[in-house]
Request: fold
Amino acid sequence: MTKKSNEYCVENIVLSGAYILDNGTRLDKADLSTKIRNSHVANKSFPALICKEQPEEKQRPRGKEGIEKKQNGATMLLFESAKFVVTGVRDIESGVRFITSIRESLERANIPVRGVDHRVVNIIGTGMLGGSIDLDKIITTLESSQYEPEVFPGLIYKALNATFLLYKNGKFVFTGIKDEEKITGILSAMRETIRSNNLFLESVS
Reply:
């Protein structure tokens, strides 16, 4: 489920890590593509096995037969070194469950996994500031901001160990945050910077 608050909505979380195998063990992506469901090799030169999350099954509405499958969108790039990158999840718990499910698939393929390390490397989300903002004034007021309206309608603002894409109507996209617990504080500080510098086009409390 997408995590929401009064300020933001998480759209994507990226995790990276590695399965801990016996010394010297390498994964055979071609062989695993025949043993892990919803996995495939893009081509011989691509260095990773692409694993997709198993679709959730749910009953169809009354009057329709069979089972409807819902794809959550999680994808893992699994490298021969057993390192991996997971993207397409909207909460950390879902990412961890997906990582665990691939570990179980590896063990069913007779690959002993002694452990797994993982960490969040990026959280991407969207939100609304609660009012329209003056992008032309922001570019002259806030350092680490870039705005080329003839090329793209959004302003890029880097601060608080994050990157924000700001639009005139107050919509924003954030990326670069690695700790879910810090999102609210970072967004509040960014909004206060805009408010305290009188960068809203109308009065905003």
User: Anything to note?
Assistant: Confidence is low (pLDDT under 50) at residues 1-6, 57-71. The chain has two domains: 17-118, 129-196.
